[in-house]
Amino acid sequence: MIKVTQKHPLIVVVGSSSIDFVLETSKIPQANDTILASESKSFLGGKGANQAIATARLGANVYLVSCVGMDPYGQQVIRNLNDEGVNVAFINETDEPTGTAYVTTSAEGNAIVVIPGANYKLGKRYIDEADRFIQNADLVLMQMEIPAETINYVAEKCKKYSKKLGVYAAPAAQLSQEVVEAATFIVAKNHDVKNVFGDVPVESIMKSLPNKLFLRDDANSTSYYDGAEMKYFRENPSQMVNKMGMGDAFTSGFAIALLHQNNIEDCVKFGNKIALRAASQLDSQKGLPNLKEIK
Hints:
By secondary structure, this protein is an alpha/beta fold. The protein has twelve helices and 13 strands. The longest helix has 15 residues, at 264-278. The protein is globular and about 50 Å long.
């Protein structure tokens, strides 16, 4: 599917780690509703942890810079990452509880409430502690479940050190111009574009960021502007159990393909393929493939 060089790229992921609690229901409750859940499950999550595990399984050497609480959930997160081959030297224990997400899922879609907890303790000093590894990284990956000032600070470092930077703009929030300029690529959801870039026509935004902005939808489609025309690729799902981790998986697959010097079109197709695998299980981390399974 993609060409793979002999090198194992070094990736530093800066982002969140959490525990996801998922309730399966017949519908998404509205205000004042009381409904019954058919099942309750918990999974390891957080966009940073998802991307760290995804890229590690795809053959990268990965460091995760993150924060957890001094609680059993935090220990569970660290053990899992360590088992997955992610270097946990820069996962910091804080006095805030480990981040949690509460997900109600039905055939209608998902409703998600996130409690950032320790993830909002990921400040500049923790980024500075990983400075040497950021300087040596082939790519830095970042999402938006951490403080905005930390996002901006990481972008400053990447620009200073001339490092590739991948940004998954979720949960959707305004990106500063500094982050947009520093980013090598940005992934966002179609319906989040105005929240991320402001009230500007989508096509204008895409054309201003050729081969840099990649927009995705829940059908596992990705569109972008290549400098000459709009491009659109879809990896048709035969089975889609879970849509929550697809953006993290796409971003990770795209990043790995890019670091192995594939062209943008092949990077997008590979990202779509990884996203589809993540959607095959309710636990999106478990659905993430190893490189030998997919290439």
